[in-house]
Amino acid sequence: MAGEVDHNNGDVVIGKKTRSFLSLGVGSRYFPLRVGRMEISASAAAALGMGFFCLLLWVMVIYPSPSSTPPPAGPFSPATSPNPEDDTKMQQHDISEDPELIKVVQNAKMTTTAVGKGSLPPSEMVIITTINKAWAEPGSILDLFLESFWSGDGTQELVRHLVIVSLDQKAHQYCQAVHPHCYALTTPGVSFTGTPATFKSDEFMRMVWRRMEFYTSVLKLGIDFVFTDVDIVWFRNPFPHFHEDADFQIACDIYTGDDSELHYNSMNGGFGFVRSNDRARRFFQHWYDSRERFPGMHEQDVLNKIKDEPFIDEIGLRVKVLDTDHFGGICQPIKDLNVGCTMHATCCIGMESKIRALTAILQDWKHFSSSPPESRNSTSFAWKPERTGCWI
């Protein structure tokens, strides 16, 4: 038994007199240790010391103190956006009733009847682009995108109706520093804070499908919208060149010359205009749901798969393809800046290549728009690989 009563003086002795303390050379000179009427042996002291050390370790390292806990990261806190290995089966998140989304859209919306060549009943609409941190920093593609609005023809007013959707905290903070209408698109279980998402990478695939999910929520608000990739420069107001009789109209990489021909026109999901009606809402939901039928494909490839299916005719969706004379890309560039509206950095891989290409294109536009009208020769602006740094 570890404890005995000394009948001579009534002291309690714990253990026997010990010659060493955990073999560290602390001998009988120090133990047993008397505390009041108690004697503590070396082994008991070792146990107490170890317990105190474990408690100290727990307090200082394992249990985070308030001073060592990082402050909440706003809407993109780690609790809401961990980085999963696979989120391809995540359930759809309808955010159409999110008060913050409603507030941002209401603040940015415009009411217009000027779509196409005719006049339509007034409708509310916004312009939407999406960014993550790779696209949002000083000198980034977002800066070029915004600069194109300020230097374009009739586009300065449009930037007031632009909603920038940020997919991570850094992008959201930068957006708030440069633009008034920013929406933080959080995704339970998903974080888009990695390296720049290359085309068709896992990060890219998650981003484009989350964006599609976001579009379906905006349509439920009854808001028409232009969707635009951020690697597009805007030269002039595109609304007069949209089709007034279309529910859904979209850009293409290669244009055949027929805006109603869906099969041979290769649609590009980076730019388009959609009306918020029942036909468009049903189609966008069908488009989003079709990702399960075509696993591993991004939204543009899935669109080019389903565009020939009977569903479009069944719901009566009116689709038009935007011509590349007004809505070009490096794959098939605008030939005449006197009529061009937008230019997309398609056929251009890598962040540096896109920045170099868009910078060159924007410089050409500024030179063109500042020239006297009589000198604006459309043939002077043929973008070549050595000029843009991208393949054409």
What can be said about this structure in brief?
With 392 residues, this protein is of the alpha/beta class. The protein has helices spanning 42-62, 99-108, 141-151, 169-178, 202-220, 278-289, 299-306, 311-315, 351-369, 385-388; strands at 3-5, 12-14, 33-35, 38-40, 110-112, 123-131, 162-166, 182-184, 224-228, 232-234, 248-252, 267-274, 319-321, 327-329, 342-344. Strand 1 (3-5) and strand 2 form a beta hairpin.
* CATH superfamily caption of the largest domain: Spore Coat Polysaccharide Biosynthesis Protein SpsA, Chain A
Mean pLDDT score: 80
Spatial shape: globular
Unreliable residue runs: 1-31, 61-72, 79-88
Helix content: 25-40%
Transmembrane segments: 40-63
Pfam families: Nucleotid_trans
Region (Disordered): 70-93
Protein name: Nucleotide-diphospho-sugar transferase domain-containing protein
